[in-house]
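--- STAGE predict ---
source: upstream dedup step, 1 unique chain passed
mode: sequence only
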Amino acid sequence: MRMLGGFHGQSARGQLATITILLALGAGCSRANVESMNHMNQGVVLATQKQYVEAVQQLERAAAIDSSNDQAFFNLAIVHMEMRKFERAKDDLTRAIAVSPENALTKRSSAPC
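--- STAGE serialize ---
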């Protein structure tokens, strides 16, 4: 990640966590929100590396810290689909919609197909 190269001695994951914390605190988020976003971002990074079990652990932790984090549930659904755990994915999507129905409608209406 070239754009994150200014953080000497930090891994890409550490750089992402630092940026997330700085942005969230600047936006007035609570510490729980920041921790939840940090775990969610780590989960997304792990999922892109196909480390699905570890991704699920991070995403579940994000959801446990902040149960209003609909993105954590949405990302959990994606990872569970990759793992072919479709019932779990369905449950995750149901939770994401319950937390934030307006975001679910936005995602659906902005889908490319």
